[in-house]
Here is the input.
Amino acid sequence: MYGGATVAPIVEGHAVQAILKSWQPWALSVLLAAIPLTVSIDARIKVLAPAMLLCAGVWFVASSGATRRNYRQAWPVMAAALLFFACIVWNALQHRLGWRPIDRAAHVLLYLLIAAAFTRTLRLPVLWGGFGVCAMVLGVVCLQQHYVQGLDRAYGLNGGPSASIEFATVLLGLSLLALARLLGARTGGAERGLLLGAVALAVYGALLTQSRGPLLAFVPALALLLVWHARRTGHWRLTVLVLVGLGVGTGIAMRATHDELPERFAAIGPAVATYGDRQHVHSAVHERLDMWRAAGRAVREHPLAGIGAGRFHDYVEGEIAAGRSSPSIRRYNQPHNQYLEAAATTGIPGLLVVLATFLLPLRYFVRHVWDADEAVAVPACAGVAVVVLYMLCALTDSVFYRVMPLSFYFFVVLGMALLIGQRKSLALAG
Here is the structure.
């Protein structure tokens, strides 16, 4: 009698565990897919998915030897993230900057732990399709801001009008994720349609931001994806269709902005040619050149320790007072060049850390882009494309200055690296 009463709860407990285990891949895939949206909005609800994934990630790292092995397999990417965090912490302590710079850099540690969810079994169509849904939602936001609100430049839902460049970077990064999956994986009709819509809306939305730097950086990243697909499959039809679709969408967006975007691109050459000194700062391009000149002076004056993370604005104020910089750049907090910002604020060592933040993950992903397993090759190629996008965007913007693009970069890079490790581990076990 008592034996039967004891067995029943045990059986029920095993049944509950089995149900929870069967739902875990779905739940993790949905939560991970929502992260790009959470970093792109400014609402309290955005903390829900990261908080749940953080708790899960800590548990996976602490309890799973397989998870820890995946981290070790992807050690170059993990090392790059830790180096970036350590550099900011050391600089903040060295210059006694308080917690604000560390708080921004702490998001790297957050996504280092969240990425542990990529080491578990996932529903890949749900994950990649979810990234596509995020791209579509944010693309629709751009349409709403441009056509309904009448804004010349869409800027998204996080950071206000000054965040249009960073928002465009995230949008184009999402389009590259969707395109990598579309080109590299065998997908069903519904998923293929969703991914095509995601690419179209994300690129169109980025065009409506009129952000020249990210759009220019997107072209080589897109070319890499298309070459990868063509060489991997030998089929050019889908590649041509993607090019035609993007060309048509670009043409429509150009007309939708009333030729403002072509005019912004056309203004670059004359602005560079007419820039002389602080007396000749009359456009956004002039302001960038003047900020780069100020950042260069900061590097020459403080080559080892830099002026301190987040102190570029203070330095510029001094340069304006001394008559070496134009007053028009007073409103900027960063020089719109990640490499110059790193060198100016954290010194030459900080510049080397930023280069490692790009190059270590890039080398890791390049090693896997030709893997026969599409579940390895697709995240590897997506990682290459996003790293290239950021490396080139960094020439005209400080891509790690705001939390939104910083979070997106480390989420994608760390996640794709561990997704590769998880798949390789399964192949070895099988």
User: Anything to note?
Assistant: The chain has a mean pLDDT of 88.
